[in-house]
């Protein structure tokens, strides 16, 4: 390939917004020559590589905007430590069919069993599949909404929780809410109903949500919309954090 043609292709690729093609043109040409690729095969190679680069760039950008606390995956989760948890149920969720259906997923259980890990892992998988993600704790969402309401910007702030394909709401139940705060949560749940998915984690059973939201009627209204299309997974095993702490204590004891 002549230098003139190479320069022209690179210039055209840059104008078309294909920077990877411009940077890797010589490598593509070498691979095509080594593999004796025909014109269509060469074009298929270039387009496939460019699409993969764009998907990876979009994925990394999506993770950055998601506010996820970490990027752990299902492969990082130790299912053997939670024998009562059926891995098939989690893997069914990982197909993301519930997100495509604009349904919800709830992960319930005591602290330390990996609820947040699983919620984040599902969100990471959804992000890789092209869905937009936003992560928040319930307390932080309420605080942000209250601040926006006081400043007359509630409608605008609500959109930040309604816009993403998947809203991850972590730590539902750690702090009881006042009725006005619960009403803000109801607005988010109600407006997302059948329009976008929610993945939530909670250390409370649904029968305890009346205490969490400070009003049985309001809690029932929230649950009615949340659970209409929802996969619920209860994790009732031991704490990973306690397991790690006990292991550390044992190591310290052995050294002593």
From TrEMBL:
Coiled coil: none annotated. Belongs to the IS21/IS1162 putative ATP-binding protein family. InterPro entries: AAA+_ATPase, DNAC/IstB-like, IstB, IstB_ATP-bd, P-loop_NTPase. It holds the Pfam family IstB_IS21. This is ATPase AAA. The keyword Repeat does not apply. Keywords: ATP-binding, Nucleotide-binding. PANTHER family: ATP-BINDING PROTEIN RV3427C IN INSERTION SEQUENCE-RELATED, CHROMOSOMAL REPLICATION INITIATOR PROTEIN DNAA. The keyword Nucleotide-binding applies. One of its GO terms (biological process) is DNA replication. It comes from the Bacteria. Residues 101-234 form the AAA+ ATPase domain. One of its GO terms (molecular function) is ATP binding.
């Amino acid at each position: 390939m002549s230098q003139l043609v190479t320069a022209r292709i690179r210039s055209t690729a840059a104008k078309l917004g294909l920077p990877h093609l411009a940077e890797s043109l010589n490598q593509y040409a070498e691979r095509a020559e080594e593999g004796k690729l025909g014109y269509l095969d060469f074009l298929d190679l270039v387009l496939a590589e460019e699409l993969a680069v764009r998907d990876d760039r979009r994925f990394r950008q999506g993770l950055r905007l998601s506010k996820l606390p970490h990027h752990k995956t299902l492969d990082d989760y130790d299912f053997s430590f939670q024998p009562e948890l059926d891995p098939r149920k989690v893997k069914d969720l990982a197909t993301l069919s519930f997100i495509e259906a604009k349904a919800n997923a709830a992960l319930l259980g005591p602290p330390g069993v990996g609820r947040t890990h699983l919620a984040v892992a599902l969100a990471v998988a959804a992000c890789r599949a092209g869905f937009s993600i936003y992560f928040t704790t319930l307390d932080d969402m309420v605080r942000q909404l209250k601040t926006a309401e006081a400043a007359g910007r509630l409608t605008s702030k609500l959109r930040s929780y309604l816009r993403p394909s998947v809203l991850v709401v972590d730590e539902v139940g750690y702090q009881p809410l006042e009725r006005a705060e619960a009403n803000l949560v109801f607005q988010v749940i109600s407006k997302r109903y059948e329009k976008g998915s929610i993945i939530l984690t909670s250390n409370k059973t649904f029968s305890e949500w009346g205490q969490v939201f400070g009003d049985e009627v309001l809690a029932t209204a929230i649950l009615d919309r949340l659970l209409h299309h929802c996969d619920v997974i209860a994790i009732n095993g031991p704490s990973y954090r306690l397991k790690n702490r006990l292991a550390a204590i044992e190591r310290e004891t052995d050294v002593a």
